[in-house]
Design a protein that fits this description.
With 665 residues, the protein is mostly helical. The chain has a domain of 33 residues. It has 28 helices and seven strands. Helix 6 packs antiparallel against helix 7 and helix 18 packs parallel to helix 22.
Length: 665
C-alpha cells in the first residue's frame, strides 16, 4: 500500500497526463477526449480524498505535516545543496485538497455538456462570390454596421483542445497547492498564467456584430497575460530576494523557523554582518512581503491590476468558473495565506506592521470599489466577475488584519459558491441561446447583435430552467451571506468579526461592500429569473442537459453545508452541536502559534446579518416585487444618475490605462 507521502506526488499527475494524451492521441475524438479529461480529474479527486482523510486523522498535522522532498537541481557539485522539489500537506494544504479537486471535477463534467453545442460570430476573410447579405446569420454571411462580413462559427470545433487546456490548468493549480517551496509554486503559478491566455482567448476568432470596439477573446487573453505578468515580475523579485537572504525557498525552513523569521524582522544579513536600511518602516521581511503581495494583486485581480478579470469573461463559461473558483484567483490569495508568518513578522496581536496595513487597505478598498461597479453591469457574467474581485478583497483584507483562519475559510466557501454561480450563469446563457435559435426557427427575427448574456434580454426564467434557478438562488444567497443556512454567511461573518475587533475602519468598509453585494445579487436574480420574459429568446429558453445540471446540484449542497465546519464554538446551540469550530482549530495548527478564537461578539454578528438581509430586501423591492418590463430603464440608473454611468463604465480605468500604457507603445 502506498504511503500518504507517495500519494501526494500523484495528485497533479492525472490531469497533466490527460493534457498530453488529448493533444497527442485523442484530439480528433471529442467524446474520447471528454472521457480522458473527466476520468483523470476523477482519479485525482479520489486520491485527494484519501490524502485528505489521512491528513485530518494525523495528530498534530501542523507540526508534523505529510511531506517529502527530493533534490531537483544540485548546485555546487553536491546533491546536498541546490533547489529541492517536494510536496507538503499541512492543514492549509488539506483545505486546498478539499475544494480544488471538488470544484475542478464539477467544472470538467459541466464542460462536457456546455462545450457540446453553440455558435458565435466570426469574420469572413477575403471575398466570397457565394456570400449573401442576410439578417439571420444561420449559415449565411451578414454585413454588420462596421462593414465586416460575418458568419456563424461552430463553437464545438475545438472541444478536445479545450479539455486538454483545462486539464493543464487544473494540474498546475494542484501542483501549486501541494508544493513545499516557492519555486515549485511559482512554476505552477506561471503555467496557470499560460493557461489563462490560452483559455480566455480560446474562441480567438470571435467578433461581435455592430460592436467593432468591444474587446474580443483574443485581446482579452493577451490583456490577462500581460496584466498578471506585471505582478509576477515583482513576485519573482521577492522570491529572489528571499532566497538570497535565507538560502532556501522551502516553506517550512523559512516560515516555521523562529530564528530565520527573527532575522528577517530585524533586517540583519548574517552572512554580511550588516543591517539593511529601512524603507518607510519596512524591514526586509516587510519589503519581501510587499513584493510577493504584488503577485497576489495581479493574480487575484486586486486594485489597480483588476482590469483583466472582467474581460476574462470572453472565454467559455467553464473557463470563468475555473479561473474564479478552482484555480487562478484562488492561487493569489493562497500565496498570501501561505506566507502569513512572513507577512506578520513583528506583529504581536495589536497595531499593524506597515506591510499588513498596505495589504488590509488595498483589500478593503478593492472589496468596496468592485462592489460599486457590479451594481451597474448588464452582463450576467461580469456581475459575477466584479463580485469575485470584491470577495477576494475580503480575503486579502482578512490577511492584512491578521485573520488567517477567516481568510482560509472564505477562500474555501467562496470557491464553492462562485463555481456554482458561474456554471449557473452559463446554464442561463445556453438556455437563452437555445431559445433564440428555437424562436428563429418559428419565424422570429433577432438583430445580429442580440446578446444572450445581457440580463435585460432575460426575465421569466424561473419556471423554464428550474434546476438552474434554484441552485443559482442558493449560490446567490451564499454570496450575499444569508444568515445561518449558507456557507458564505459563516465565513464572511468571521472576517467581519475579526475586523470589528482589530480594525474598525476595515469593518465598516467591508460591511458597506456586504450590503452592496447582497443588493446586486438580488438585482441579478430579479433581472434574470423574475417576472415575464423580456425577449422571445427568454420565452423559448430551455436547458435540460444532466451534465450541466448535476454539478449545480452538488455544489449547491456544499454551498449550504460547507460553512458548518466553521461555526463559532460559542454560537448558541449550533456551536457545540457542530463540533466547536473544527475548521478554526484544524487550520490554526498550520502556524507556529495557533491563533486564539475571538470570543463571540453579537454586535458584529447582528450587523453582518442586518447588512445582508437589508441588501437582499432592497434588491427584492426594486427588481423582484416589481419586475422590469421589456424596454424599461434600470431603476438604479434613474436613482444614481451620473454615478450609475461611472459605475457602468468601471470608473473609466480601461480607458485610462489605454491612454497611458497602450497608445504610447
Amino acid at each position: 500500500m502506498m504511503s500518504l507521502q507517495s500519494l501526494v506526488w500523484l495528485i497533479p499527475l492525472p490531469p497533466l497526463l490527460a493534457f498530453f494524451t488529448i493533444l497527442l492521441f485523442t484530439r480528433h475524438d471529442k467524446r474520447l477526449s471528454d472521457l480522458v479529461a473527466v476520468g483523470a480529474i476523477l482519479i485525482t479527486w479520489v486520491i485527494a480524498i484519501v490524502v485528505l482523510i489521512g491528513a485530518i486523522s494525523t495528530p498534530g498535522l501542523g507540526e508534523h505535516p505529510i511531506a517529502s522532498r527530493i533534490v531537483w537541481l544540485p548546485l555546487g557539485g553536491s546533491v546536498e545543496t541546490g533547489f529541492t522539489m517536494g510536496t507538503l500537506v499541512d492543514p492549509l494544504g488539506a483545505v486546498m485538497l478539499f475544494f480544488v479537486p471538488l470544484t475542478a471535477t464539477m467544472i470538467f463534467i459541466y464542460s462536457t455538456g456546455y462545450m457540446a453545442s453553440g455558435h458565435y460570430w466570426t469574420e469572413v476573410k477575403g471575398e466570397s462570390e457565394h456570400g449573401t447579405e442576410s439578417s439571420d446569420g444561420h449559415g449565411e454571411i451578414v454585413v454588420d454596421s462596421a462593414g465586416r462580413r460575418l458568419t456563424k462559427f461552430d463553437a464545438t470545433a475545438w472541444k478536445a483542445r479545450f479539455m486538454a487546456f483545462i486539464s493543464l490548468f487544473a494540474g498546475a493549480m494542484l501542483m501549486l497547492s501541494v508544493a513545499d517551496n516557492l519555486l515549485l509554486l511559482f512554476i505552477g503559478w506561471e503555467i496557470m498564467g499560460l493557461c489563462s491566455y490560452l483559455l480566455i482567448g480560446f474562441w480567438h476568432n470571435r467578433v461581435y456584430p455592430n460592436q467593432p470596439d468591444r474587446i474580443t477573446p483574443m485581446i482579452a487573453g493577451i490583456k490577462a497575460f500581460m496584466t498578471t505578468r506585471v505582478g509576477d515580475v515583482f513576485m519573482l523579485l521577492g522570491i529572489a530576494w528571499l532566497y538570497s537572504f535565507t538560502g532556501t525557498l522551502n516553506f517550512r525552513d523559512i516560515l516555521y523557523n523562529e530564528e530565520m523569521l527573527r532575522a528577517l524582522e530585524t533586517a540583519a544579513f548574517p552572512n554580511l554582518g550588516q543591517s539593511v536600511p529601512l524603507l518607510a518602516g519596512l524591514t526586509v521581511a516587510g519589503a519581501i512581503s510587499i513584493l510577493l503581495f504584488l503577485g497576489t494583486v495581479g493574480k487575484s485581480a486586486q486594485f489597480p491590476l483588476h482590469t483583466w478579470l472582467p474581460d476574462a469573461m470572453e472565454g467559455p463559461t467553464p473557463v470563468s468558473a475555473m479561473i474564479h473558483a478552482a484555480t487562478m484567483v484562488s492561487a493569489g490569495v493562497y500565496l498570501l495565506i501561505r506566507m502569513f508568518p512572513l507577512i506578520t513578522v513583528g506583529w504581536h496581536g495589536h497595531g499593524f506592521t506597515p506591510q499588513m496595513t498596505i495589504i488590509a487597505a488595498i483589500g478593503a478598498f478593492t472589496a468596496l470599489f468592485a462592489a460599486t461597479i457590479a451594481l451597474a453591469q448588464r452582463d450576467i457574467k461580469k456581475v459575477l466577475a466584479y463580485s469575485t474581485i470584491s470577495q477576494l478583497g475580503y480575503m486579502v483584507a482578512a490577511v492584512g488584519i491578521g485573520a488567517y483562519v477567516a481568510a482560509a475559510f472564505h477562500l474555501l466557501t467562496h470557491a464553492i459558491f462562485k463555481a456554482l454561480l458561474f456554471m449557473g450563469s452559463g446554464s442561463v446563457i445556453h438556455a437563452v441561446e437555445h431559445g433564440e435559435e428555437h424562436a428563429h426557427h418559428h419565424g422570429h427575427h433577432f438583430p445580429i447583435d442580440f446578446d444572450a448574456q445581457d440580463m435585460f434580454n432575460m426575465g421569466g426564467l424561473w419556471g423554464r430552467i428550474p434546476v438552474t434557478a434554484w441552485t443559482f438562488l442558493i449560490g446567490g444567497l451564499a454570496l450575499s451571506g444569508f444568515p445561518l443556512v449558507t456557507a458564505g454567511f459563516w465565513s464572511k461573518d468571521e472576517i467581519l468579526a475579526d475586523a470589528w475587533a482589530h480594525a474598525p475602519v476595515v469593518f465598516w468598509v467591508l460591511a458597506a461592500a456586504a450590503f452592496l453585494t447582497a443588493f446586486y445579487t438580488m438585482r441579478q436574480i430579479g433581472l434574470t429569473f423574475a417576472g415575464e420574459p423580456r425577449t422571445a429568446a427568454a420565452e423559448e429558453a430551455t436547458q435540460k442537459d444532466w451534465r450541466m445540471n448535476l454539478p449545480l446540484v452538488v455544489l449547491a449542497f456544499f454551498a449550504i453545508t460547507a460553512g458548518y465546519i466553521g461555526v463559532h464554538e460559542e454560537f448558541p446551540v449550533l456551536g457545540q452541536l457542530l463540533g466547536g469550530n473544527p475548521f478554526h482549530h484544524f487550520v490554526g495548527e498550520t502556524l507556529l502559534e495557533a491563533p486564539e478564537t475571538l470570543p463571540l461578539n453579537f454586535t458584529p454578528l447582528l450587523l453582518s446579518i442586518a447588512v445582508a438581509l437589508g441588501g437582499l430586501f432592497v434588491g427584492w423591492l426594486v427588481y423582484v416585487r416589481r419586475p422590469l418590463k421589456a424596454g424599461e430603464t434600470d431603476p438604479l440608473a434613474r436613482v444614481l444618475g451620473p454615478l450609475y454611468t461611472l459605475f457602468e463604465n468601471k470608473y473609466y480605468f480601461d480607458e485610462l490605462y489605454d491612454l497611458i500604457f497602450v497608445r504610447p507603445s
